[in-house]
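Co-fold these.
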Amino acid sequence: MSEIEKIESETLARIAASQTIAALDDVRVAALGKKGVISERMKSLGKMDPEARKSAGAAYNTLKAKIAAAIDAKKTQLENAELDRRLATETLDVTLPIAPLPKGRIHPVTQVTEEIIAIFSAMGFDVAEGPDIEDDFHNFTALNFPPDHPAREMHDTFFFNEKEDGSRMLLRTHTSPVQIRTMMSQKPPIRIIIPGRTFRCDSDQTHTPMFHQVEGLVIDRETHMGHLKGTLEAFCSAFFEVDSVKTRFRPHFFPFTEPSAEMDIGYERVGNEIRMGAGEKWMEILGCGMVHPNVLRNCGLDPDIYQGFAFGMGVDRLAMLKYGIPDLRDFFAADARWLTHYGFDPLDQPNLSTGLSR
Amino acid sequence: MKFTLSWLKEHLDTTASLDEIVSTMIAVGLEVEHVDDPAERLEAFTIGEVIEAEKHPEADKLRVCKVATNEGTLQIVCGAPNARAGIKIAFAPVGSYVPGIDVTLTKAKIRGVESFGMMCSAREMMLGDDHDGIIEAPPEAMVGDPVSRWLGADDPVIEFEVTPNRPDTNGVAGVARDLAAAGLGRLVTPTPEPVKGEFPCPQKIGLHFPSGAEDACPMFAGRVIRGVSNGPSPKWLADRLRAIGLRPISALVDVTNLLTYDRARPLHVYDADKLKGEIRARMGEQGESFLALDGKTYEVSGAMTVIADENGVLGLGGVIGGEASGCTDETVNVFVEAAYFDPLRTARTGRRTGLHTDARHRFERGVDPEFVVPGLEMATRIILDICGGSASDILVAGAPPEFKHVVEFPPSEVARLTGIDAPPEKSEEILSSLGFKVSRADPWLVDVPSWRPDIEGKADLVEEVARIIGFDALPAAALPPRSAVERPKLTRAQDRRRLVKRALAARGMLECVTWSFADERNAALFCDGAQWLAEQGLVLANPISSDLGVMRPSLLPNLVSALQRNADRSIDDIALFEVAPGYVSDRPDGQRALAAGARLSNPKRHWAKAPARADLFTVKADAIAALEAAGANADQAQTSADAPHWYHPGRSGALRLGPKLMLAHFGEIHPRVLKAMDVDGPVYAFEVFLDAIPEPKSRPTRTKPALNAADLSPVRRDFAFVVDEGVSAEALIKAVRGADRKLIEEVSLFDVYQGKGMADGKKSLAVEVTLQPRGKTLTDEEIDRIGAAVVAAVEKAVGGALRA
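Predicted complex below.
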């Protein structure tokens, strides 16, 4: 065995025997350090004749590379073992509960209003709004409720105190005053829906002094009651997310439409659920009709030229029907349990491409 | 409005079933609310015959009966005094439901004797009030017959809603006319036959109205019938009134009620012997009063139409009669009045007095002006038939109000407004059957019948044609699209509210919808007081209840009280918000779009971290989140410590753009406010004024500016400054930023210290400044120079010095 072979075998044995990074480093210093065996030997090359130096130099360089590679390999092995040992001590109870984030919720009135807007947007309706505090003209007179007419008593109106000039403001009893404001400020064609708060002096199991309506208004030169029917049927099946709905239009009376109708839709009760659209029973959903010629005239439109329809429906009631919410009064009680249960995730933004709800 | 099927059939010759009648009524716009079909209601009850009735061995008042029934002969124990052999009775079998006692019968043992079913009283079957004994059917009734056939209760009662536009359907005749027009039978309403007077009317009548008020009662007619014998009505009349929920009073009064419901023609009967001098219609006078038939005394005003004699007011025209002149069983001579009272005054008088009478209901909606005298004739005939006597001539003061109304009607209007393609012949046929007279000129001239005050113009005639054809005929059509792809529909303000709601819910808050009203005391805490609310006109004249008495100036009173309501149910860790209007005046423009939230924070403990309790900075973050969602640039807002007085003076602030534009308030609600509202705090809240946020500049494209990412590593340096404790962090940060606008990219405040090692009245604020070199790296000298500039800027702006 040559000397080189001896150094190689001894050093490789010591590398293999190293148990720690520090011990391995001692081996490295002893072999490759400034005063290490191999370094010392390589220093002595200078004294050799050129031929011998050439062959010995090559041999030592090979040895040096071999040892260095062996040390690197061992080092990686020791580091891995070290890491595994440490990781083995680093265990956590993964079943510990996370800190829950509070879950915010969107109120059903907001959600359902946005659903309604999504549907009517697709049918070309703009969204208009108007003030809650109104005057008699916009809430009644312009809508063809003559002063003292019994039809006014169908609306239990909230009034403010009389002013010095004898006039008194009121809380709008329906969203219809916005029809007037729109028709007086903009030229047909008009195609709008009007969501908003409405107020009637009435409070019992099924009535609250404040509630929400969505009004619709279409004014142009050709829209007739068949369009009203088609529009509302399309709305109902989209809103209740069913393929089609069975509807019934019944003649009715509203001062601001002529002809006037109420729309019922078919439903059935299955257990606690109300299934809208089919079934033998009828549920009244909304009032509607062709805008009364007097209303058009009051807004400066000629009823022989312009025509169109209007409808109004209760947002809260639609929310109750669609989502099975039992009591209207709870809508306005701000009970955290109710809001959490019936409310909607803020990520659920109603639109028609994903379906209105999940 | 209620009527019975047999009553309808006096006006309508029809073979239609009850169901067909009901569905046709609905189809033509007479909204049926309820149908009571006694045959159906009493289906379970059949006629039985008592074969024997023995005394109960254990009870003196009970009898053990053998009863022949449709289920064979059964033993029934009965306590009725009239239970005896031979009578025909109403039998309720085991398993049937007896509505009057709300019991479903089971086989029973009564004092040890078995009993199979029950023999019922009228009250037990809800056929009347009689409970003195079991009801007895006529002897000719057969065992097993339905009870309804023999006990005068086989007449279904239909109740429907009369809409204000159809006063004619306040009478059965009007209903029959609609049904006949809809093809359900032939209209056979009899025309009243005049009764020839046998003597001149001895009762003087007159109209005494000041000029301008003549229309209060343009026509007043009447006649005297002498020698009547009043008393209970005959059974047919009493039954008919009872069936529709009226209490029979006496024949004379009942006849007026019959006409009210049969022809929508109210009348009044006076005891002629109690009248003094002329009976007249006139306006009331302040100070007058009278005792009405409902037993109450009413004050009369100058705006009310009254009927009076020389002694004073007898009744309110079109609303209610008086006790003193009313008919009694002793009445021998009766004065029958038929008049026309104008709708508006009648409605006002009714509202003023709160009287809801059948007469008011009809007069205020408009009675047929041409049926005044015919109604009087018809009543006379029935009174003579029932009560005998002899009638005088009719006296008439005034004349019916002019009713001549011709509508120009191009028949094409039906298709124009409804899309229904009705042939003109069909339209003409329908209008004629409803009593309109059609002249086929161009356009058609349609003469409106006197009982239809609602028909004003063409559109009304379209409705008449369409509703009789049926709205099922409406063709369902889609609106034409306005463009291939619809344009955005929400206004900026609407979209802002949508985004703010989603942003706040994403912060874990619950959206509420609370009343636009508030309790006045609570609302006053969140504005300049109750006086201010009143001055701004925000107080309701007729609130639904005292705790909903004013329009809220802020959303906070309702949210804060909602927090406490939840806390009362042990839910005391919640965050509520609302995006809704608040009100600053009773004008249409006195409405502001607000977003507000309130937090009550008692977080649960958690193993991993200390509970994060909401504080001033939580609601500041809420407010900023809302502002940013609404499109405001919150970075440009200035914060100041001047929130309004309902906030804690030291723990609240305001966000503004420039010196004036208030964007938001936030902070802890003032403890005194909470105490006044009986709320356990602390409560943190914010309110954002969405209308104040400036409109963003409109941009021609949606192109974003190019990304300017630096290639070179940023350099970070920390500075700690000692400043007076009154110095605001915002001022210091602003000063640091201003030291080198180009290189300083971020200033983040990471420590606030006050206490040991710090002089009294001083605090330390430490910031990390990020310098972003561009193009070339910064030398140490450059970095030092910027550091010196930062120190100098802070010293100049807020008087701070580097902390030693």
